[in-house]
């Protein structure tokens, strides 16, 4: 079955461009469009898309609040949110990730990258490329600990291997890449990731990465 996509952007020309790219793919179907966050909520309820391509700065309701409602506890369907922005990594994007977005791309990303991102998010993974994690590190560099501080209390609930997996998730590695790095099976990695999310009360890999930066587990210059 085709992945059902809802386009949310206040610029009609951009929506048209995205539609042309996505409808050229046999496994993707654009089921609707919205010009602001409120319309997006209405369309999500009516159309039940799998993935919402969400602009951040829009009239009436911005993409952050729309994301929060689409992915929150009162959600009306299975839709996942992929944020599109022209602003690189700003506070709006950080808030969208905290609100429950499954990742983000810049609007000038290559068409192939956009298509792959939708497939990744629809499959339940997070679109968290290494280039994005580097921008996250840069964003938090000024407020991250130096390395001498004690580990935040919630991290003490993780095993040594789970902490290791969390660091690799924060670097943007996929389950397969983590498995290769740690010489374990991909199934084992999935189990570890699941334990990390459960113990820390996090929704997905994106929130896990943001947590890793904010807690100081991952620091600027770390490989």
UniProtKB/TrEMBL annotation:
Q: Which Gene3D superfamilies match?
A: 3.40.50.2300
Residue ranges of domain HTH luxR-type in the record = 151-216
Task: Give the organism, scientific name.
Answer: Actinacidiphila paucisporea
Q: Which InterPro entries match?
A: CheY-like_superfamily (IPR011006), NreC/VraR/RcsB-like_REC (IPR058245), Sig_transdc_resp-reg_C-effctor (IPR016032), Sig_transdc_resp-reg_receiver (IPR001789), Tscrpt_reg_LuxR_C (IPR000792), WalR-like (IPR039420)
Origin organism lineage: Bacteria, Bacillati, Actinomycetota, Actinomycetes, Kitasatosporales
Q: Which residues carry this modification: 4-aspartylphosphate?
A: 55
Q: Which UniProt keywords apply?
A: DNA-binding, Phosphoprotein, Transcription, Transcription regulation
Annotated SMART domains: HTH_LUXR (SM00421), REC (SM00448)
Q: Which protein are we looking at? A: Two component transcriptional regulator, LuxR family
Annotated GO molecular function terms are: DNA binding
Q: Does the keyword DNA-binding apply?
A: yes
Domain named Response regulatory: residues: 4-122
Tree of life domain: Bacteria
Q: GO terms for biological process?
A: phosphorelay signal transduction system; regulation of DNA-templated transcription
